[in-house]
Design brief:
alpha+beta, 6 strands, three-stranded mixed sheet
Length: 169
Amino acid sequence: MIIPNLIVQYCLDATIDDHLTAISGPRNVVFSFDRPSPKAWCCLRYYKEISNRISQPRKNEKFHQFYDQTMDEFHQMNFRSIVYLEKAGYDNRLDGFKKAIMKTRVQVNDSSLNYILEPKFNAYAVRNGQKLPWIFGSFAIGAAIWLIMIVIPPIDEDKVKALFPHEIA
């Protein structure tokens, strides 16, 4: 069993002092203030896989542990240390974010669902990983394969004609 996303709305309005506006998760656990729909949503994804082979009370216990742990992490998170915000890609995470946002008690308009952002806390320069070494590595692998193809001796046409006399014209 995969616990559905916990979505946290972070209003980008600088006049709001408290950053926690709404939390939505499984079983409609909701904490909300009466606020108008924001221009954008900043969503964090917390997930944990739980085995279906354990009993339902044990699953509920694990869910509550997970919920308490992620809420503690969220409250300790320093949102001022966000380096950049990345627009959520078109995948299952985006669908989960939209579903959780719609469950909140905050007024939601369709235009705000176009701007679902995920905070990134690491440097912008490391977002692509190790592309430069992979470029040179890929070139080296391709060159090695090409060299092996060149080094292979040519095919002896007389032996091929002897094996397949009727197929080669």
